[in-house]
Design brief:
alpha+beta, Rossmann fold, OB fold (Dihydrolipoamide Acetyltransferase, E2P), 2 domains, 6-stranded mixed β-sheet, 5-stranded antiparallel β-sheet, binds adenosine-5'-triphosphate
Length: 359
């Protein structure tokens, strides 16, 4: 439905977007994720029409949007700052775009009531924005953006001004709302947890380019490169060298740790001597004072260097032959809050296919 084709944008010497191509399907919850300055807002503003690309094209339903001013694009944007008119009631705020479009008052009343239902604030119409909480104000901003049924809703970090608990609640509501209204959402965030929780697909951006586009579970378990592995969740990046590739298996030497055989990465042809990294999620490891390891597991002995108690889990940093590996233990067993202390000798292992090999 939405196609971004080779879009570039430069500000002075800075290449904010470099030949970005993407497609978004109708009804999709699609997220642009990346660190500050990677270009995601510039891309969103280009779709909205607030920014004009230097080259490339942006098509909606096969028609280029570039010649249309923002107000003529069937697209609405919800900003972090809500942008509600403080002197107007909630109903008037929501009705504003409909009045601008010349709708009659009966239709306006009906559509305002419908979107207030959609955002679960059916009785808020006569209130003023100041009398609402941050979460409620953001819901009204979303209601106003939805009221004239855009083809595409663009959301620029809409939850970042809310506290953690309210944000989680709003995330669930956003997922349900998007399902109910069926409108395509393009969502910008730098919060990887939020992106994983909300999206059907995520485009991870780095320095104005797309690093990987995939479903959340694929991004998490099979990152294409070190940047994505490191940016999405916690991840050990174990440096190594390729010894040989044999069909679907690659023999690698991990710096400081020794040799192991891992499944190949079908996207990459590895040659003997190539530098590589094994991306290993902390929760894919087993950690104990002593471990019985199977033939299909890689075994390491080390020392607890640091620990971080997080309530539901404890993160342990294990040092083995100069390499630091993060491991995770759930604190679900009764009485188990501090199993190991810094300085304890421990054993760590993971299955041959627990990690994912990248360059
Ligand atoms: P953030 O999460 O911090 O908003 P972002 O990924 O959305 O970051 P953009 O806002 O798209 O990043 O900005 C990308 C780069 O382009 C940044 O280095 C920014 O300083 C620069 N930039 C954006 N807009 C302009 C502008 N109008 N003039 C000059 N530089 C700009």
């Amino acid at each position: 439905m939405l196609e971004i084709v080779d879009v570039s944008r430069r500000f002075g010497d800075y290449q904010a977007l470099n030949c970005v191509s993407l497609h978004v399907e109708a009804g999709e919850f699609f997220t642009l994720l990346g660190p500050s300055g990677c270009g995601k807002t510039t891309l969103l503003r280009s779709i909205a029409g607030f920014e004009q690309p230097d080259s490339g094209d942006i098509l909606l339903d096969g028609r280029s949007l570039l010649s249309l001013p923002p107000e003529q694009r069937p697209v609405h944007t919800v900003f972090q700052s809500y942008a509600l008119f403080p002197h107007m009631t909630v109903a008037d705020n929501i009705a504003f775009p409909l009045r601008m479009a010349g709708c009659n008052e009966t239709e306006i009343r009906q559509r305002v009531a419908e979107v207030l239902e959609d955002v679960r604030l059916p009785d808020a119409g006569s209130r003023f924005p100041d009398a609402l909480s941050g979460g409620q104000r953001q819901r009204i901003a979303i209601a106003r953006a939805l009221v004239n049924r855009p083809r595409l809703l663009l959301l620029d970090e809409p939850l970042s001004a809310l506290d953690a608990k309210l944000r989680e609640q709003m995330q669930i509501e956003l997922i349900n709302l998007q399902k109910e209204v069926g409108i395509t959402f393009v969502y910008v965030t730098h919060d990887q947890g939020e992106a994983l929780a909300l999206s059907h697909r995520i485009a991870v951006m780095e320095h104005g380019e797309i690093s990987q586009v995939d479903e959340p579970s694929v991004l998490y378990s099979c990152p294409d490169n070190r940047f994505v592995a490191d940016f999405i969740g916690q991840c050990n990046l174990l440096d190594g060298k390729v010894i040989e590739q044999d069909g679907e298996r690659v023999r690698i030497a991990l710096a400081g740790l020794g040799e192991m055989t891992v499944p190949t990465n079908e996207e990459i042809d590895f040659l003997p001597g190539d530098a590589c990294a094994l991306t290993l999620r902390p929760e894919k490891t087993r950690l104990a004072r002593e471990l019985q390891c199977g033939d299909d597991e890689f075994h390491v002995r080390g020392e607890v260097h640091d620990m971080l108690y997080l309530g539901d889990v404890t993160v342990y940093i294990i040092e083995a032959d100069g390499v630091r590996i993060e491991a995770l233990l759930a604190n679900s067993a009764p009485g188990r809050t501090r199993l190991f202390e810094p300085g304890d000798t421990v054993e760590l292992c993971w299955r041959y296919d627990a990690g994912h090999l990248v360059r």
